[in-house]
Write a structure and sequence with these properties.
This protein is of the alpha/beta class. It has one domain: Rossmann fold. The chain has a seven-stranded mixed β-sheet. Strand 3 and strand 4 form a beta hairpin. Helix 1 packs across helix 2. The two termini are 20 Å apart. Magnesium ion binds next to helix 2. The site of magnesium ion has 5 residues, from helix 2.
């Protein structure tokens, strides 16, 4: 399936893209976020939270691995960086097959636990304030979301 791309020029723009993506999500949807430290994964996750109507402040869950928030749908924000070199399963299935939206930073570290289909988003650093966002949809549902998002941007 083909990829979709867009470039953002400020962190606010990255959040805005994510905010527009949020209402297109369904219960049980999974988004993976890849990119170097400082690429903008947590920035993107904050935008999704805002778009889902999460009121609480969203911080990086690096030390807790998973943080749960209440929004129009439950929002599960994961940062699995610390699971590198382990094959620890912290009950991912229940989240991925649950009733909320899951966003997973550094998802390749838990590749074996990821669902069959998800929306993979890779953020790469172009310059200090510019980022290239690449959307790789795993099925038609995610493809239509990626197309809508990048088409109207
Ligand atoms: P990660 O979770 O990938 O480590 P963060 O979202 O925590 O990254 O940090 C991204 C940093 O880059 C923030 O300081 C943010 O302000 C900055 N930044 C600058 N330009 C952008 C942009 N276009 N999109 C996202 N973040 C940006
Ligand atoms: Mg982060």
């Amino acid at each position: 399936m083909s990829d979709f791309q867009l470039t953002t020029y400020t962190d606010g723009e990255t959040q805005h893209v994510a905010e527009k993506l949020a209402p297109l999500m369904r219960p049980g949807d999974v988004i993976t976020l890849e990119g170097d430290l400082g690429a903008g994964k947590t920035t993107f996750a904050k935008g999704i939270a805002r778009g889902l109507g999460v009121k609480r402040n969203v911080n990086s869950p690096t030390f807790t691995i998973i943080k749960e928030y209440e929004g129009e749908l439950p929002f599960y924000h994961m940062d699995v960086y610390r699971l590198e070199d382990t094959d620890e399963d912290i009950g991912f299935d229940e989240y991925f097959n649950g009733d909320g939206v899951c966003v997973v930073e550094w998802a390749h570290f838990i590749e074996e636990f990821l669902p069959e289909s998800y929306l993979a988003i890779s953020i790469s650093y172009a310059d200090e304030h510019s980022r290239v966002l690449t959307f790789s949809p795993g099925n038609e549902h995610y493809k239509s979301i990626a197309a809508e998002l990048t088409g109207e941007w």
